[in-house]
Design goal:
Pfam families: Pyr_redox_2, Reductase_C
Cofactor: FAD
Radius of gyration: 23 Å
Distance between the termini: 67 Å
Strand content: 25-35%
GO molecular function: dioxygenase activity; ferredoxin-NAD+ reductase activity
Largest sheet: 5 strands, parallel
Protein name: 3-phenylpropionate/cinnamic acid dioxygenase ferredoxin--NAD(+) reductase subunit
Strand order of the largest sheet: 3-2-1-7-19
EC number: 1.18.1.3
Length: about 425
């Protein structure tokens, strides 16, 4: 009997965990994991932090070195490009090998969105998406170096924190009015900006880049001129203006694309033999009425596992509220649920963490939460968000009311209890 062949293209968080889940569930066929980088699968969150700050002691591999051999998972690394024939169910890899597959998982992730105005400057202009990118940045982030960061999202602020820790002088430029505007409540973004400013970081908001040139004077420097006329000079520029899903393989296979590879709740694409997971995958979101991608470590982890289960015909695990985190300026900040909640209140003092931020919808239900240096409370906060708990405001804000007890009670609220009361 022919041994079934499952091919995974994309050797990142989603792909590596999908391969592991196939074996965990007893799949005995051939598992081939293909990646365009030369490195075994690694995690991306450390790239902007520990890989820069503690390169010798940081290990970011998804699995131990011997894992793939022990699990009989074939790794083909440093193989860029693949040409599919969806009708024949074959995949011709960049090295010329053609593989006949029974099922294919696309986990190709996303690429840094390019800014040609800066790319044209050549050396000392960087993005951060890969381990090789991080290692190149390490040479730039030196004491006294002037670093200009374009983009005040999560990666931009994490890089600002790391650069200051390494002794660099940092300026952050953001075209929108706020930091982390897509993924954090405004009061938290403002607080983080104050923390960065207190460490010497210059932040400029609401001004795009009008021009960028390399000037030769007493020293070679890059000069950015903002739309308001401000000139900012630096020794190196790092920009992070978002990512774009790497859908080349999916498009060549004729799959449906809408802000990524369109998948259903079981990670199935428009081709019944092809699945997708991670940053490249896009699912319809009923609340927003459009297809959305989640660019988080947890989503890649969980969706890779879910795709593997679906490939084996197994039911998916229950979904949980979306969660992610950032570490910057000595702060651990964790997020769960809807960061666009219309109202935010704080348990404790945001200016003096630890504290918890709660996001409420228009009816007073808890739909989002953020912990600042209080990660032990995240599990309970997550449970409350998943249940859309309605707590009396004085209970929600009272540090003497343990979130763990509130979360436990929320699973079976009693009429008239604090958990059954609308926010006052």
């Amino acid at each position: 009997m022919k041994r079934p062949v499952y091919v995974i293209v994309g050797a990142g968080q989603a792909g590596a965990n999908a391969a592991a889940e196939l074996r965990r569930q007893g799949f005995a066929g051939r598992v081939l994991l293909v990646g365009d980088e030369a490195h075994p699968p690694y995690e991306r969150p450390p790239l902007s932090k520990d890989v820069l700050l503690r390169p010798q002691e940081t290990r970011c591999a998804v699995h131990p070195d011997r894992f793939y051999d022990d699990q009989d998972i074939e790794l083909k690394l440093g193989v860029a490009g693949a040409v599919p024939d969806a009708g024949a169910r074959t995949l011709t890899l960049g090295d010329g090998e053609t593989i006949a597959y029974d099922k294919l998982l696309i986990a190709t992730g996303a690429r840094a969105r390019r800014l040609p105005l800066l790319d044209a400057l050549g050396p000392n202009v960087h993005t951060l998406r890969t381990l090789d990118d991080a290692r190149q940045l390490a040479g730039e982030l030196q004491p006294g170096r002037r670093i200009v960061l374009v983009g005040a999202g999560v990666i931009g602020l994490e890089l600002a924190s790391s650069a200051v820790d390494l002794g660099a002088q940092v300026t952050v430029i953001e075209a929108t009015p706020a930091a982390m505007g897509r993924c954090a409540p405004p009061l938290l973004g403002a607080f983080l900006c104050d923390v960065h400013r207190g460490r010497g970081v210059t932040l400029r908001f609401g001004a795009g880049i009008a021009s960028a040139v390399r000037e030769q004077g007493e020293q070679d420097e890059i000069v950015l001129t903002l739309e308001d006329g401000t000139r900012i000079a630096g020794d190196a520029v790092i920009y992070g203006i978002g990512v774009e899903p790497d859908t080349a393989l999916a498009q060549a296979a004729g799959l449906a694309i809408d802000n990524g590879v369109v998948i259903d709740a079981q990670c199935r694409t428009s081709d019944p033999h092809i699945y997708a997971a991670g940053d490249v995958a896009s699912r319809f979101d009923a609340a927003s009425g459009r297809h959305q991608r989640r660019e988080t470590w947890e989503n890649a982890q969980q969706q890779g596992i879910a795709a593997a289960r679906a490939m084996l015909g197994l039911a998916p695990e229950p979904e949980s509220a979306p969660w992610f985190w950032t570490d910057q300026c000595g702060l651990n900040v964790q997020f769960v649920g809807d960061m666009a909640a219309p109202e935010w209140i704080v348990r404790g003092e945001l200016a003096a963490p630890p504290c918890v931020l709660f996001g409420l919808d228009g009816e007073g239900a808890l739909v989002g939460a953020v912990t600042v240096n209080l990660g032990r409370e995240m599990r309970s906060a997550r449970e409350l968000v998943e249940r859309r708990a309605r707590l009396a405001r004085d209970v929600l804000l009272d540090p003497q009311q343990p979130l763990r007890a509130l979360a436990k009670a929320a699973s079976a609220p009693q009429p008239g209890s604090a958990l059954d009361c609308a926010a006052a």
